[in-house]
Specification:
The chain has 386 residues and is mainly alpha-helical. The protein has one domain. 77% of the residues lie in helices and 0% in strands. The protein contains 17 helices and no strands. Helix 7 packs antiparallel against helix 15 (320-342). The N and C termini lie far apart (56 Å). The mean pLDDT is 84.
């Protein structure tokens, strides 16, 4: 058991160090490693796992990794896969938080400006891509725009939960499906029901936590954000922003998001940055707790999905409005605070245009965009224009 855990851990640790490019790239890297090179899984098995992870809430690429670990080594293999794939990015994001805290650049500085401009390009690219893929009918386009307007008007956690719940109900009513021909075994249904109960209790408890206790509010904000992510890692951005801005300043939040674009591994390790800046008196523990809290609900839902996957696949058509809502949420945060905070002068307007050209027109990788924007922003800062 120990040898198998260690082998899976180090294999995913290497993947975590080299997996740049976001969730889609991560899924391709996993396929190349486990389907093409090692031939542990067939194309059909892997495609089924990917489809399952893409239709449940949570970080899809991390869930695919945990699913692969589970198939190889059971629960311990799943844990080893998550730790290995997450650890490199989490450490780098934690160091980034320490750098921000020590440098004192929470409200300014050319680096923070550069990271906000990175967010302009990355999130615009994500919104355009998700709009073209997920909003293909008149109804879904309308839902996305309505969600954007509502969330822009009331950018709080309650709004996003209400929009997602309403979309789930609308999808259930409007998209009838046939009952699956194969039923899961009773013991799998029992595991699934317990898993869903724990997940739901966690979400409900997160909504009742007040802001008096910093630790509890930090844990609750990360748990609820991780529990409600549909449609890709970028969607966690509006959820976390609604939870933690305030107390965090927008500059601090967007600097962390921009910094995450340069990291390998999952975008959810933004939590490893937010934890320390939220609780600077205990940075390491805050990073560990925040990271565990944001990944926990996705892991629970993955357990449910692996237990009754055949039944869940029949729900895929009912998520069309949920996918449209998350596009709207991301569009709202693109307008405010990303554009409103990043673009405030002629110089930052020009730099924002450069970010859009690199990310959207030239389709360069996030790592290349980070390097270009850091270089360009540092140059204009040296000229005294920022």
């Amino acid at each position: 058991m120990t040898a198998n855990f260690t082998r899976i851990l180090f294999q995913f640790l290497w993947l975590g160090c080299t997996s740049f490019g976001g969730p889609t790239a991560h899924i391709g890297i996993f396929r190349r490693q486990f389907v093409e090179k090692e031939k542990r899984f067939s194309e059909e098995e892997y495609a089924t796992l990917v489809a399952l992870c893409q239709m449940i809430p949570g970080p899809a690429s991390s869930q695919v990794g945990m699913g692969l670990g589970y198939r190889i080594g059971g629960f311990s293999g799943s844990l080893a896969a998550w730790v290995g794939f997450t650890l490199p990015s989490a450490i780098l994001m934690y160091l980034g938080a320490l750098w921000i805290l020590e440098d004192g650049s929470l409200t300014g500085g050319w680096f923070v400006v550069a990271m906000k401009l990175v967010a302009v390009g990355i999130v615009t690219q994500a919104v355009l891509g998700m709009w073209s893929q997920l909003c293909v009918t008149r109804e879904t386009k309308l839902v996305a725009l309505i969600a954007a307007v509502i969330f822009y008007s009331a950018p709080v956690a309650f709004t996003q939960v209400g929009l997602i719940v309403a979309a789930l109900i609308a999808g259930y009513v409007s998209q009838p499906i046939e009952a699956p021909k194969v039923s899961a075994k009773p013991r799998y249904w029992k595991v699934a029901m317990w898993g869903l109960l724990i997940w739901a209790v966690g979400v409900g408890a997160s909504g009742w936590v007040g802001s008096d206790n910093t630790w509890l509010s930090m844990i609750a904000g990360h748990y609820s954000s991780g529990a409600l992510v549909f449609g890709g890692g970028h969607v966690v951005l509006p959820l976390l922003e609604a939870e933690f801005v305030p107390p965090l300043q927008v500059d601090t939040f967007l600097a962390g998001y921009g910094f995450a674009q340069a990291m390998p591994g999952p975008l959810f390790t933004l939590a490893s940055y937010l934890g320390p800046v939220l609780i600077p008196e205990s940075t390491l523990l805050a990073a560990v707790v925040a990271t565990a809290a944001i990944f926990l609900p996705g892991a629970i839902v993955l357990l449910v999905a692996l237990s009754i996957g055949q039944q869940l696949m029949h729900w895929k058509s009912r998520l069309v409005f949920v996918n449209a809502v998350v596009v709207g949420l991301l569009f709202a945060i693109l307008v405010n605070p990303i554009f409103t905070e990043a673009v405030d002068s002629e110089v930052t307007t020009a730099l924002a245009v450069l970010s859009l050209i690199v990310a959207v027109a030239l389709k360069r990788s996030p790592l290349e965009l980070v390097a270009i924007m850091i270089g360009a922003t540092f140059f204009v800062d040296q000229l005294g224009w920022i």
